[in-house]
Amino acid sequence: MIEKRRARRARLDIYLNKYVGGVPYLARTSDISPTGVALAHLIEPSHEDPRVGLQFQLPGSAELIYIEGEVVRRWAGKNCDRSGVRFTLIAERHRKLIGEFVERAAA
Fold first, then answer.
1. pTM
2. pLDDT reading at 107 higher than 90
3. Structural domains of the chain, count
């Protein structure tokens, strides 16, 4: 498989709210970068609209992050469906928080 990621990523194992059609569903992250996140789908309906909202807190931070994104890849995981979400609307301070988290994890 050809690696298409352009940004450094960090392992991140947290639960988050994934909004599909304005309704929150539980998802779990596996890694994150300042430009996107990999998710495991836990409880959510099948949907074709690639637009999603994400709401979460990074470990060690009290800041609630809200990001809008687009599902750019879907695949079947070992125990659940998975997807890659590219961020399309993110506050600059949240992108910076994620970037700092990734850099700390890489150190």
1. 0.86
2. no
3. 1
